[in-house]
Amino acid sequence: MPAEKELPSTLRRSDRKARRTWSEAHDSAVQTYGYGERAHRNAFSALKRTHEKVGDHWEPKDEYGPSDERAARGGPNPGGRAAGGVDNASKQHLYEQAKRLGVHGRSRMSKQEMVQALQRASERETRKAREGR
To answer: Is the pTM higher than 0.85?
Structure first.
């Protein structure tokens, strides 16, 4: 698959199904739209229906579906970057992810604080993995 050459580092650390989902969606989008950002966005959109980013890799979701309410509506993205579906997750699910990623103070956090802490932890884990630490 041509997409294998462009596979993001977070997907290289993920399971085969995540890599295959992204690659197939990317290759299809390249045929439709050509190479570039649009093909990558399309591939990530497909991946987010079946997987969620946890730390420095992607893991299968318990339920198939849109990553968040905005993704379910479709259309343009006027509000900026999405939280990767964590806004839609239960506080218990967020707490369990925070525990796995070693987020301190998680028991005292509001849901929004936990979403922000998980985003920072995920970015930190990805940065460490890319630097080879």
So the answer is: no
